[in-house]
Amino acid sequence: MHEKSWLRRRVEKAFTKALTRAYETVKVDPQRFLLELRAAHGLPITSFQGMYTVEPPVLDTVAEQIIRSSMKIAAAEGAGFGLGGFITIVPDFSILAAITLRTIQKLSLVYGFEFNTDEEMAELWIAAASAAGVDLGRDLLEKNVVNRLIPRIIQRIAAKASTEFVEKWAGRLIPVASSIIGGVLNYYFVRGWGERAQAHFRQKHLELRRRTLQQQTIEAASITS
Fold first, then answer.
1. Could you give the C-alpha distances from 7 to 58, 76, 86, 116, 164, in angstroms and in order?
2. Cα 151 to Cα 6, 112, 155, 157, distances in angstroms
3. How many CB atoms lie within 10 A of CB 167?
4. pLDDT band for position 138 (50/70/90)?
5. Which pTM value belongs to this model?
């Protein structure tokens, strides 16, 4: 029990450092990503607002492909760094955090949510918390300005993720098996976070789409009456 508690604290510290670094350095280029979406999927859009004119099943397919691609990258990175066993825990998390955050950013854009302002960036990290299975609570969200909110969200995510990882970590302490298990852990970690982030953005997208349609219906009715 003591060893697991020590390991969890070590992992939580590593996760906090990795997520903080990712927050400061990792950002998908929206315009480049828009061009990639148009070329790879033939989406008839000129901006991410155009995502609201694309049928949701099409967006879902794009999102699922993004998650699968990230899972493969994470698995390959996990297998490579896993060769050193526990010693490589910190660089492993740095790369995993970057892959995960880039995945969440791409999913946000696919469902029409950009992250140019502080408020939009905070929403992105709220989505990351949702992906990690963290309940932030109304009190945390209401009483914090953006520059204090995100570090606190990172702390909550790191605490949750460290517990999740330690429960599945035993094999990685054995270097012989760590390469295989490291890849598998990263694969399923990104899949879990990716799927929960997709569900978060998809729900927000459908809600905004529904409100927009209702508003358009009301405006059309007022014109004809």
1. 42, 24, 10, 37, 12
2. 23, 25, 6, 10
3. 10
4. low
5. 0.82
